[in-house]
Specification:
Elements lengths: L1 E6 L4 E8 L3 E9 L1 H5 L6 H22 L9 E7 L3 H18 L3 E5 H7 L11 E6 L4 E6 L6 E5 L5 H11 L7 H10 L21 H16 L6 H26 L4 E5 L6 H11 L6 E3 L3 H4 L4 H13 L20
Parallel strand pairs: 1-4, 4-5, 6-9, 9-10
Antiparallel strand pairs: 1-2, 2-3, 6-7, 7-8
The structure holds adenosine-5'-triphosphate, magnesium ion and fe (iii) ion.
């Protein structure tokens, strides 16, 4: 099976060809970060316009790199949500046109299922598992008892982890997207500033990061009122320590309660060095729990992960059709 994946949910135009759900033959990502940087975030209209300009080129490049034509493909998988409606529609319409022209089945993929299945491009999944999804728009603990089965056992009540990183970065005058910059500063600083950790109710797997974000802003504000300066490195380190502490503690508790075989890390914030090493350390002496972390290039948005998740649906015989539409708020539900 050769699946062409297409991803346009936010600010990367991406296409990839995957063999048998596991092997990357090509993985092309055209990032728009430079166009959005000066606005400090993604501007939906600009994103759509870039997708229109890039989609054909990116798809052609993915086929070329894989040394294939449309005749060699088995199916086309495309992100149908969640994401920016105008951005999603560009990918969906391209997928529909190509599927129709070349008489190929079309598969609609949930973007977060894609982030989770990025792990399958590295290593086989074993169930049951817990996936910690940390991205620009999501912070979720997802329980999977088999392929295509997703149960969200915890989620953020306010900001997503990546969103908190980007907002804190903005208050420190760091460029967008701020996550990697905070990560870098954090490693040069000391977690010497006391910041809150939102544990929420006793057994809760939910998250909340807006209080932490406000605490960072207040710390900066109060210091400047007193005419003091705060070392941004220490503030970044303290913020990161708080985020990582809550994420790792809840993930570990879920892994034990649900008696999982694997813990998966997924989403753009999975690129975070502090989070990766803290999870590794936390699981080091947990016998029988395997930790899976995708390489950096598969953590942020790409189409290889969409094709990998699409392959699972293909094998289950779950297809879309030419009436497929964009679903900006699509919930992550099981495909079973
Ligand atoms: P979603 O997947 O929820 O729809 P998205 O696709 O916009 O959102 P991703 O591309 O998965 O998000 O991830 C982007 C986010 O990851 C940004 O918020 C970015 O700051 C963050 N990020 C990337 N690298 C790091 C890092 N090293 N440390 C912390 N955050 C990071
Ligand atoms: Mg992005
Ligand atoms: Fe994403």
């Amino acid at each position: 099976r050769y699946i062409l994946g297409i991803e346009t949910s936010c600010d990367e135009t991406a296409a990839a060809v995957i063999k048998n759900g596991r092997t990357i033959l090509s993985n092309i990502v055209a990032s728009q970060i430079d166009s959005h940087k000066r606005f400090g975030g993604v501007v939906p209209e600009i994103a759509s316009r870039h997708h229109v300009e890039q989609i054909t080129v990116v798809v052609e490049e993915a086929l070329q790199k894989a040394n294939m034509t449309f005749q060699d493909l088995t199916a086309i998988a495309v992100t149908e949500g969640p994401g920016l409606v105008g951005a999603l529609l560009i990918g969906i319409n391209a997928a529909k046109a190509l599927a129709f022209a070349h008489n190929l089945p079309i598969i609609g993929v949930h973007h977060i299922a894609g982030h989770i299945y990025a792990n399958q491009l590295v290593h086989e999944l074993s169930f049951p598992l817990i996936a910690l999804v940390v991205s620009g728009g999501h912070t979720e603990l997802v329980y999977m008892k088999e392929h295509g089965s997703f149960e969200v056992i915890g989620e953020t009540l306010d900001d997503a982890a990546g969103e908190a990183y980007d907002k804190v970065a903005r208050t420190l005058n760091l460029p967008y997207p701020g996550g990697p910059h905070i990560d870098r500063l954090a490693h040069e600083g000391m977690a010497s500033i006391d910041l809150p950790r939102a544990w929420l109710e006793e057994r809760s797997y939910n998250f909340s990061f807006s209080g932490l974000k406000s605490a960072v802003i207040n710390t900066l504000h109060n210091a400047s009122q007193r005419g003091e300066t705060i070392d941004p490195k220490n503030l970044a380190a303290s913020f990161q320590a708080s985020v990582v502490d809550v994420l790792v503690t809840k993930t570990l508790r879920a892994a034990e309660e649900y008696k999982v075989k694997q813990v998966l890390l997924a989403g753009g914030v999975a690129a975070n060095k502090g989070l990766r090493s803290a999870l590794e350390n936390a699981l080091i002496d947990k016998q029988g729990i395997e930790l899976m972390i995708p390489p950096l290039s598969l953590c942020t948005d790409n189409a290889a992960m969409i094709a990998a998740a699409g392959d699972v649906l293909y094998q289950k015989g779950i297809f879309g059709d030419l009436k497929m539409n964009a679903h900006p708020g699509l919930p992550l539900t099981s495909y079973l």
